[in-house]
Amino acid sequence: QVQLVESGGGLVQPGGSLRLSCAASGFTFSSYGMRWYRQAPGKERELVAAISSVGGATSYADSVKGRFTISRDNAKKRVYLQMNSLKPEDTGLYYCNEPRYDYWGQGTQVTVSS
Q1: How confident is the model at residue 65, as a pLDDT?
Q2: pLDDT given for residue 55 in this prediction
Q3: How far apart are CA 42 and CA 14, in angstroms?
Q4: Cβ-based neighbours of 91, under 8 Å, separated by 6 or more
Q5: Strand 103-104, strand 3-7: pairing
Q6: Which of 14, 17, 22 is nearest to 80 (CA)?
Q7: Pick from 4, 8, 13, 2: nearest CA to 88
Q8: Judging by beta carbons within 10 Å of its beta carbon (0-12, 13-18, 19+), is residue 24 exposed, middle or buried?
Q9: pLDDT surpassing 90 at residue 56
Q10: Which residues 6+ apart lie within 8 Å of 15 measured at CB?
Q11: What mean pLDDT comes out for the span 82-104?
């Protein structure tokens, strides 16, 4: 059974940091690229960052470049999203995704507010 379980969300002040984690199971994690998406209230789901299967290639939405870093640990079957210099517009539900077979986690809420 495939599972993606996100964690690490929470309430943070503008300018703060959070590190999201996604634990994968039920598939050969090291063989597939991974992505982080987010969805703000009333908005469409947005691709935030992506990483290749071995972590050699990454890409980011323009809105988060220079502030967010995606990484992975294939031995632990985890993908991470380090988020720095957070802004209120970063608020949303953050999802982990495996794009080839379209696996999704349940999401973790990030709220940036003073």
Answers
A1: 98
A2: 78
A3: 21
A4: 40, 110, 111, 112, 113
A5: unpaired
A6: 22
A7: 13
A8: buried
A9: no
A10: 85, 86
A11: 96
What lies within 8 Å, CB to CB, of 64 at 6+ separation is 48, 49, 83, 90
Residues present in the chain in total: 114
Which stretches does DSSP call E strand in 1-43? 3-7, 10-12, 18-25, 34-39
Q: Which residues contact 28 (CB under 8 A, 6 or more apart)?
A: none
Question: What are the phi and psi torsion angles at 88 (to 5°)?
Answer: -55, -30
pLDDT band at 54 (very low <50, low <70, confident <90, very high): confident
**Residue position matching structure tokens 């995606």:** 70
4-37 pLDDT, tens per residue?
A: 999 999 999 999 999 999 999 999 999 999 999 9
Q: What mean pLDDT comes out for the span 60-70?
A: 98
Rounded to the nearest 5 degrees, what angle is found at the Cα of 52, between the Cα atoms of 3 and 9? 50
